[in-house]
Specification:
The protein has 547 residues and is α/β, with parallel strands linked by helices. The chain has 20 helices and 26 strands. A hairpin with a 7-residue loop joins strand 16 and strand 17. The chain is globular and about 70 Å long.
Amino acid sequence: MGHLQGEGLTASLDEAEPEREGRFDPMTSAQGRMRPTHPRAHRVDDIATAFGLRLVAAGGDPDTQVTGLAVGSDDLAPGDLFVALRGLKRHGAEFTAQALAAGARAILTDAEGAGLVGDEAGVPVLVAENPRELVGDLAAWMYGYPGHELVTVAVTGTNGKTTTAYFVDAAQRAHLGSTAVLGTVELRVGEESIESPRTTVEAPVLHAILALARERGVRAATIEASSHALALRRTGGLELDVAGFTNLQRDHLDFHGDMDTYLADKARLFQEGQASRGVVVVDDEWGEKMVGLATIPVETLTTRVGVPAAEEADWAVLEAQIGLDGVGSTFSLRTPDGSVVEAASPLPGLVNVSNAALAVVLAHRSGVPLDVAIAAVGSAHAIPGRMERVIERGDGWPLCLVDYAHTPDALELALQAVRPITPGRLIIVFGSDGDRDQGKRPIMGEVAARLADVLVVTDENPRSEDPATIRAAILEGVRAVRPDGREVEEVSPRADAIRRALAIAEDTDTVIVTGKGHEPTQEIAGVFHRYNDRDVYLAVRAERTGA
């Protein structure tokens, strides 16, 4: 099943590398505080016995008790077991001093890490051959398997995870009341919410939040599961009620290497012990392959009207009416017993028909009555950064949208969805990530040049790369479609690009800014700066109106 690309990738892809300390990162400490208020204490010696670990007792008392655990010293709370993993550049054990200063009472690491800790730490050191493989099961055990007492649904796939997860959550809330969401936008338990540091949090944070949800009487949790998280075992120790798959499109090949390995890592969610049952969208070959890789019972869903698979799929969208300006879409859904029900998506575009249909089936298979699921999904609230309408058309303003589309396929679907609600020109502001799959950059340029009228090429999250180099790769693709470069501008920084798009836009136009969606920061040269596309739109409007 796929590969981990070696544990050496842990640091950069977890975003839990201790050497990140000192950078601006407002996320990590907040997630570390979302824990149950009265956790059970565990003796280190009992942990060693339960999981077959070697206890290095030099300088440490095996009767020491721990009340939690953390990967990365930023997330530590007093009384924790510090899980020190090998990262891309350095070993987490090198940061033992910081962990102890933060209140760690014991350390779990590998043999190399134990050597780095040495005999002077003064706390017990537990040694495992592969601590990353163990940490999810350990976290679940320490927090008393909280996932067993909640209805849990997880969604994976390249695009649509966030939208589908929010639709599922709407259905769960309508049926059960208080819920939790753990995903790209936020970590929410009941009414408390914090910004999420990544799509899927580390296993100790995941189980701690589920334990907090249980403590607060929350009855269901919806989780986004990224391919990185599945490859790196962040969902370890959790057996879901239902797992869902949206699609597989080009992304993250810098990590997975090729599409088959990318799919194999996604398929980890559909294995015995990770989920009880699954629902897979089979609109293309990747969905069909996913069904073959699953070792749990799986139902299939097709959302492409008229394709041959529609007759064979368990669930099928038979027809859809795509909504226009400010209106979602309606569709007919055939159920496994042959009956047909009418449903809706509150967001425009065929892609959101697919997301809504999957959410309805996932929610229903997790225990929500079908009519309740349909009604709740159809009336779900707007989702941050997903076709988010920031400024409405009128009074001299174009329609201003923000969307997270950051892959070629997602970009194409977003522009196709927006075209019917654009009487004038479709203006796009976009870029591409640094330190990620470089091959998609010219493809995104081609897509934008083909489907939008005016292109403003800018920066997304350059990370450690030269932003101009990333823009040049995008523009190479643009020139393949528009060799004369008409209606194409290159503007940096990103805020200036949005300002430029608004300066040239008329009220019949639509301006869509893609790639970052809800994200509250922009990473440039390794530094996180507070930034949000929506805020730039609103700042320009305030400047013009004097508000």
